[in-house]
Amino acid sequence: MLLISNQLTGIKTQEQCSLWLLQLHNWHQIHKGTLLEESFNTFRNDYCNTHKGLHQAYTLIINALLHLFSYLNDSEIPSTTNRLESFFKHLKQKLLLHSGLLLEAKRNFIKWYLHFKNNPSK
């Protein structure tokens, strides 16, 4: 699963997308027994997935498939969220410098921050 998921950011064409989806399907056919394995949890007195992380990763990908490759059809959509994550990291760092602000002042700070980021002075 890790090898298949690591290939996601390299997909640039519909053909590569189709091949990746085929790989995912083949992986599932081989490993569906492992995904469905359950173990008895004596603390909760219940059964749970033996390979919880693997099951969650696969489920996340399956649930995201509908929108996962939208960027292939629209050049305005980036293929990763790196720029967005970087933007929010920068915003959080700026907010940390003003950690003493009241909630309403923090909201105003964010509004002004977004305003100046979207309307740079000329």
Account of the 3D structure:
The protein has 122 residues and is mostly helical. The chain folds into two domains: 2-72, no CATH class; 82-118, no CATH class. The protein has five helices and two strands. It has a two-stranded antiparallel sheet with strand order 1-2. The mean pLDDT is 91. This is Transposase.
Main beta sheet: strand number and arrangement?
Answer: 2 strands, antiparallel
The number of strands is 2
The global form is flat
Identify low-pLDDT runs: none
Average pLDDT, rounded to a whole number, is 91
Short description:
With 122 residues, this protein is mainly alpha-helical. The protein has helices at 2-6, 14-36, 52-68, 82-96, 103-118, and strands spanning 38-41, 46-49.
Kindly list the characteristics that best describe this protein:
single chain, 122 residues, mainly alpha, 5 helices, 2 strands, 7% strand, flat
Secondary structure elements and pairings:
Elements: H1 2-6, H2 14-36, E1 38-41, E2 46-49, H3 52-68, H4 82-96, H5 103-118
